[in-house]
Amino acid sequence: MIHFNRFRLTNGLKVIVHEDSTTPLAVVNVLYDVGARDERPNQTGFAHLFEHLMFGGSKNIPFYDEPLQRAGGNNNAFTTNDMTDYYIQLPAQNLETAFWLESDRMLSLAFTKKSLEVQRKVVSEEFKEHYINMPYGDAGKILREMTYKKHPYQWLTIGRELSHIEGAQLEDVKNFFHLHYNPSNAILVVGGNVKTEDVKEKAEKWFGSIPAGERYERKLEPEPEQTAARQKETTANVPLDAFYRNYPIYDRLDHRYYVVDLITDLLSGGRSARLYQSLVKDQQLFSQITCYHYGSLDAGMLTIEGKLIKGVKMREAEKAVEEELRKLREEPVEKRELDKVKNRIESLIAFEDSELLSRCNSLAFYELLGDAHMINQESERYEAVTPDDILNVSKEIFKPQHSNTLYYFSKQE
Amino acid sequence: MDRKQPPIIKNAADFKIVLPDCKHFQLDNKIPVYYIPSNQQETLQLQWIFKAGSWYESTTSIALSANKLLKSGTVDLSALEIEEEIEYYGAFLSLRCYHEIASITLHCLEKQLPHLLPLIRTILTGATYPKEEIALFKKNKNQALSVNTKKSEFVANQLIDTYLFGSYHPYGRHSSHEAYDALQRENILAFFQQYYAHNHCRIFAAGKLSKTFEQQLNQYFGDAWNEKKSLLQKKYPIQPALEKKHRKNITNSEGVQGAVRIATPFPNRYHPDVPKLQILNTIFGGYFGSRLMSNIREDKGYTYGIYSSLNLFAKGGSLMIQTEAGTDICENVVEEVFKEMDRLKQERVQESELHLVRNYIMGSMLGALDGCFKAIRYWKNLIISDLDEKHFYHSIDTIKHIQADEIQELAQKYLDEEQFYNLIVT
């Protein structure tokens, strides 16, 4: 059971306090309700580029990192298709430094030309490092474009192409800030060796005077149901053939989300899971294969990806994967196997919850979903899943006409 | 309210940081057990450490194979049965092999421990290394290697270690298709029997530990399992490359980014300069606000990240700078790295920067010791290096009291451009 207190400032900022007196540290986590899904199709990668700019100095504080490091703290941030999260960990005695820094950049950035110029280059290098220079680095992009025709999940957080990042202008940066970075679009979580009353006082002092701004109303076109299977082939200078298969799944608040999550674990939640046992060990068609999803807030996707053993035919590998999916659709899962993946989840949650930073991140995430209390209800939701649920949901998601397949061939040298 | 005015900070460098207490007992067979209990959680971590790293192998990748294939079968259990049992109880069993040591680490809920201890006993005492499992391991390792050797970072990491230590030295040699193809069951099994003997084992535990924890461990690991063996001490000469500058192209000019590695040898982890050098390294390239990051990322935007690190082993080590950057600017990056080295040699670090770094390191130290899992990791690193808490308090003391001219002296001693290998892989 994770305890917390919750209140709201008059400007709309939601604040959650998680007291833990066993640590000398404090965590300050600020989550903004903006991600790559809020970008325009001709200006992708912007939410993430913006995350970098948040470290380029704010209205009254020219350097963000320096004073934080001087206070013994460190920080990081991440951007997903759904949200942007900034977090600080520092000695609890210096908590106020974190309030000072975070409130000033929520108030206003410095918007310097230099920062934009440099971070455009840094992000371009990040793009190259992870998506161009990496073998199979473009597979994720191709899969998203195949799976989504309307919804903005069709591009990666890093952006659809380098030119979108290279072309970002200071005016765009300012507009983005005013649209998304204000108290009514943010959640503040303060955790660790802190007291709620003190946090209340500091939150009022530093964040209370920031203008509320307008709550951003998201109007995204939902992805229409797929009616026919899609296939694509690509060839690149990679050593092995690879197989990718995508299926649309539900949104994060759908009760079937938990069923899908357990299905991915049945398929690849460990060495004893089905895909590894059948395709890597018994049939030896793949040297490596996994199944995963991103836990996206809007309807997401489930991906199966594997590298074929040299000499194995793509068609043969595909058939073997499909056979595993057929079993899920047609044969009820044994109780022991279902218990196994539930036990895994129970354990994973317990390990996540033993980290202060992870608890604070989770509280912010569930508050974004609608209610921080969900953090304490997840285990029950997994526990409630039955073999029938697995069967029924497998039938729905693994429909042949919902499949998106990418055949990634190694260039013959 | 004046937002330009920062809140008053408490200097982390003035904190009294205490190394959390680590308890200790011995099993009946003399295996030492180190542990840090916590009643804040339901989870625990249990680790078996052996002197079974690559240092002790006679052929490349034998130590790795003996470690990674530990759970691939026993007389009574197949690999699948072992994996199913571990996973059924929601546990995670990870196997790692380093230069000096190899480890088996269990993460689980405390309530499941009684189911898992007998299983680990079975694996540790009865691994049989089935032939077909070895064949599969070889095949999949070879496939993974062929993907990795397309990555400039991977190739650069392999090459730089070979330049530093020579291709025969355990710190310098690396996996290869030939080595994987040459793996033989008899060699792996012999290595297991020699180096996974109980007299080479140490146990580290943290988290929720029941009252009967000592008894439980003794029941399953307290007897004379895996016959006592002597540790064969091996000596390897370090044979560094003569040429300092290396440029490799692995992608036939298709790559848009190159991997840069700049490194110099350093004696070992016991060298008296280590605590001070850690601080010089932090200033130079050890954190986000470092000289290298400020110049090469935050000022010039050449790279997503650039770091320097002190890699310390029992019988060697290195100071290494690493980054990935656009192929057209890799040479500029190398130049800037050497410029930053030179600046540390020529100019004394300002008091303000030193103050920041002191606080930053002390704050990080608080983080590195927060919670029983992190604390046991810190202790484990001390103990397997034959160090104790004196080393910790000496490091803290050094952080608090080091002066700018000491840092400059160290820079002059260690940041000598001519002693650095510099490598670009594109």
What labels would you give this structure?
heterodimer; A: 413 residues; Cytochrome Bc1 Complex, Chain A, domain 1; 2 domains; five-stranded mixed sheet; 42% helix; B: 426 residues; alpha+beta; 43% helix
Task: Set down the secondary structure blueprint.
The complex is a heterodimer of chains A (413) and B (426).
Chain A: E1 5-8, E2 14-19, E3 25-32, H1 46-53, H2 65-70, E4 74-79, E5 84-91, H3 95-107, H4 113-132, H5 139-147, H6 162-166, H7 170-180, E6 186-192, H8 196-207, E7 230-236, E8 242-248, H9 257-268, H10 274-282, E9 286-293, E10 301-308, H11 314-330, H12 335-353, H13 356-369, H14 378-383, H15 387-397, E11 404-410
Parallel strand pairs in A: 2-6, 7-11
Antiparallel strand pairs in A: 1-2, 3-5, 3-6, 4-5, 8-10, 8-11, 9-10
Helix pairs in contact in A: 3-8, 9-15, 10-11, 11-15
Chain B: E1 23-26, E2 32-37, E3 43-50, H1 62-68, H2 79-88, E4 92-97, E5 102-109, H3 113-126, H4 131-148, H5 152-165, H6 177-181, H7 185-195, E6 201-207, H8 213-221, E7 245-248, E8 257-265, H9 274-286, H10 291-299, E9 303-312, E10 317-326, H11 330-346, H12 351-368, H13 372-384, H14 389-401, H15 404-414, E11 421-425
Parallel strand pairs in B: 2-6, 7-11
Antiparallel strand pairs in B: 1-2, 3-5, 3-6, 4-5, 8-10, 8-11, 9-10
Q: Would you kindly provide a written description of the structure presented here, covering whatever features stand out?
A:
- With 413 residues, chain A is of the alpha+beta class.
- Chain A is built from 15 helices and 11 strands.
- Chain A has 2 domains: 203 residues, Metalloenzyme, LuxS/M16 peptidase-like (Cytochrome Bc1 Complex, Chain A, domain 1, 2-Layer Sandwich); 181 residues, Metalloenzyme, LuxS/M16 peptidase-like (Cytochrome Bc1 Complex, Chain A, domain 1, 2-Layer Sandwich), CATH 3.30.830.10.
- In chain A, strands 1-2-6-3-5-4 form a 6-stranded mixed β-sheet, with helices on both faces. In chain A, strands 7-11-8-10-9 form a 5-stranded mixed β-sheet, sandwiched between helices.
- In chain A, a hairpin with a 5-residue loop joins β1 and β2.
- In chain A, α3 packs parallel to α8 and α9 packs across α15.
- Chain B is an alpha+beta fold and 426 residues long.
- Chain B folds into 2 domains: 202 residues, Cytochrome Bc1 Complex, Chain A, domain 1 (2-Layer Sandwich), CATH 3.30.830.10; 180 residues, 2-Layer Sandwich (Cytochrome Bc1 Complex, Chain A, domain 1), CATH 3.30.830.
- In chain B, α1 packs across α7, α3 packs parallel to α8 and α9 crosses α15.
- Chains A and B meet through α2, β5, α3, α4 and α10 of A and α2, β5, α4, α10 and β10 of B.
